[in-house]
Amino acid sequence: PARSPSPSPQGFLYTAPIREQGNIYKPNNKMMADELSEKPVHDVHTKEIDLVNRDPKHLNDDVVKIEFEDVIAEPEGTHSFDGIWKASFTTFTVTKYWFYRLLSAIFGIPMALIWGIYFAILSFLHIWAVVPCIRSYLIEIQCISRVYSICIHTFCDPLFEAIGKMFSSIRATVRKEI
User: Fold this and answer.
1) CB-based contacts of 1: which residues, under 8 Å, 6+ apart?
2) pLDDT tens digits, one per residue of 7-58
3) For residue 28, what are the CA distances in angstroms to 12, 22, 32, 37?
4) Among 5, 39, 96, 118, which is least packed by CB within 10 angstroms?
């Protein structure tokens, strides 16, 4: 009679052989485990945004920081009433602040959608069209450059060598007569 395999401690009839290194799912050695557990991947779509510093890369430092003094100034000798100057300052500042908020509320999300689509298309074209075209061009130009090099060495090198030998026998002397 044939002998049936003995069951493993887990109750399986056959157990996979355990390698010294383990497998990629359950590595036995520490080095392999460390290689597999590299840096955690961060999802850029769910990262938290900074609500305090909204321009961390300083994109708009030189353009948008417009203050009242940058736009309206009264030179010496031409001053309005102090109350008018203060009211003008307050009106300018509050209007700029709230009108920006109003425009952001109305157009912010549609503009974000438009710019998101634009940069998605730009990224797509760069990845799937521009870089492959450049790579293809470089491969083709490398082939053409080899053919060009062969032609130059075949036709021009002997010509220039003959011209060089022809002019190498010419001797020029300079005499100074007094």
Assistant:
1) none
2) 555 555 555 555 555 555 555 555 555 555 555 556 666 678 888 888 888 8
3) 21, 5, 8, 13
4) 39
User: Cα 23 to the chain's mean position, in Å?
Assistant: 36
CB 34 within 8 A of CB 42: no
Angle of CA points 51, 52, 55, to nearest 5°: 90
SS3 per-residue string spanning the chain: CCCCCCCCCCCCCCCCCCCCCECCCCECCHHHHHHHCCCCCCCCCCCCCCCCCCCCCCCCCCCCCCCHHHHCCCCCCCCCCHHHHHHHHHHHHHHHHHHHHHHHHHHHHHHHHHHHHHHHHHHHHHHHHHHHHHHHHHHHHHHHHHHHHHHHHHHHHHHHHHHHHHHHCCCCCCCCCC
Collect all residues with Cβ–Cβ distance below 8 Å to 33 and sequence separation of at least 6: 27
Token pair in block for residue 13: 């009839």
> Which pairs with CB-CB distance under 8 Å and at least 24 residues apart come from 75-79?
none
Q: Which residue has the tokens 């007569």?
A: 177
Residue 55 has φ and ψ, to the nearest 5°, of: -135, 65
| φ, ψ at 85 (rounded to 5°) | -65, -45
Measure the CA–CA gap between 33 and 37, rounded to whole angstroms: 6
